[in-house]
């Protein structure tokens, strides 16, 4: 289930490049308008996968699309209209977001105490595509894939894999597959039969090499997600390019609904059909 939300700012606004945390908070704020209890549960707990002892929020959202588009050193200036997509397989999350949107048809983005207020002008439910064992998508937000690696002092740290480094590419693809399987198990509350002749067990993932060549290999983005204190931020490295995936259509669907890779609820891994993206987001950044 996914919805496209369009909103107008009260006056021309300045939005910094690193807005993911502000939009993430605004989405929880909209759900809270419908049900504070559910919003708190989703934020603090989420949906538990007991087998791997991990929690998933099982939603994702796209980057913001601005009108007009004026870029300065620190961000986007004189923004009047924004649009973004919210996607989830969880009916309750979808319902509470919609009810929150229509409670007073307003929300705000908060940047270090400075609020930018928006009035919702359109809420559009988007149709679901046909999922086959081979699909092509466009990234509506970067895909981030992480792993744990050991530091020289023996402690583990989170490392974001780089698709453009040959030594990390296979690990990047394998972790996308594992993440999709874990989301499937969490959502359906059942094991995933990997060797299923009905659905196939082949898994391939590749970003469009022509697009990579056109961008001179520059398809990565480093997002500062949340300020932990005055000096440290969470830095998330993601990749943004059209891609093809060959896999069990059930895994492709859960990726489309809840995001590909890590950090879906932080605004990573949201994808759209190439035609869908063309129709809705011409001129998008």
Key phrases:
285 residues; alpha+beta; 4-stranded antiparallel sheet; 29% helix
Show the helix and strand layout.
Elements (H helix, E strand, L loop, with lengths): L1 E15 L3 H15 L1 H9 L2 E3 L4 E3 L3 E2 L3 E3 L7 E13 L3 H14 L1 E6 L2 E13 L7 E6 L6 E5 L5 E5 L5 H23 L15 E4 L1 H6 L5 E8 L5 E7 L3 E4 L2 H10 L12 E3 H7 L5
Antiparallel strand pairs: 1-6, 1-8, 2-3, 4-6, 5-6, 7-8, 9-15, 9-16, 10-11, 12-15, 13-14
Helix pairs in contact: 1-2, 1-3, 4-6
Order of helices and strands: EHHEEEEEHEEEEEHEHEEEHEH
Category from helices, strands and their pairing: alpha+beta
Dominant shape: globular
Give a count of the beta strands, DSSP E runs of length 2 or more.
16
Q: If helices are DSSP runs of H or I spanning 4 or more residues, what is the number of helices?
A: 7
Describe this structure as you would to a colleague.
This protein is an alpha+beta fold and 285 residues long. The chain has helices at residues 20-34, 36-44, 91-104, 166-188, 209-214, 249-258, 274-280; strands at residues 2-16, 47-49, 54-56, 60-61, 65-67, 75-87, 106-111, 114-126, 134-139, 146-150, 156-160, 204-207, 220-227, 233-239, 243-246, 271-273. The chain is 29% helix and 35% strand. Strands 1, 4, 5, 6, 7 and 8 form a 6-stranded antiparallel sheet that branches. Helix 1 (20-34) crosses helix 2 (36-44) and helix 4 packs across helix 6 (249-258).
């Amino acid at each position: 289930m996914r919805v496209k939300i369009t909103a107008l700012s009260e006056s021309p606004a300045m939005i910094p490049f690193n807005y993911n945390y502000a939009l993430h908070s605004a989405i929880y704020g909209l759900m809270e308008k419908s049900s504070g209890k559910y919003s708190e549960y989703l934020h603090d707990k989420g949906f538990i996968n007991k087998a791997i002892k991990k929690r998933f929020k099982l939603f994702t959202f796209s980057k913001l699309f601005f009108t007009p588009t004026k870029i300065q050193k620190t961000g986007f200036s004189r923004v009047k209209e924004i649009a973004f997509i919210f996607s989830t397989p969880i009916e309750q999350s979808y319902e509470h977001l919609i009810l929150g949107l229509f409670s007073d048809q307003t929300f705000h983005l908060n940047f270090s105490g400075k609020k930018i207020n928006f009035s919702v002008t359109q809420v559009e439910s988007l149709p679901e595509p046909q999922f086959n064992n081979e699909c092509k998508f466009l990234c509506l937000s970067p895909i981030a894939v992480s792993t744990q690696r050991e530091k020289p002092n023996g402690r583990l740290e989170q490392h974001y894999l780089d698709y453009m480094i040959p030594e990390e590419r296979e690990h990047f693809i394998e972790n996308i597959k594992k993440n999709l399987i874990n989301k499937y198990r969490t959502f359906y509350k059942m094991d995933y039969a990997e060797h299923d002749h009905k659905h196939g067990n082949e898994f391939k993932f590749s970003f469009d090499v022509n697009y990579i060549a056109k961008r001179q290999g520059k398809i990565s983005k480093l997002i500062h997600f949340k300020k932990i204190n005055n000096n440290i931020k969470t830095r998330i490295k993601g990749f943004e390019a059209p891609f093809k995936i060959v896999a069990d259509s059930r895994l492709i669907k859960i990726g489309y609904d809840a995001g590909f890779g890590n950090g879906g609820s932080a605004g990573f891994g949201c994808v759209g059909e190439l035609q869908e993206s063309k129709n809705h987001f011409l001129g998008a950044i």
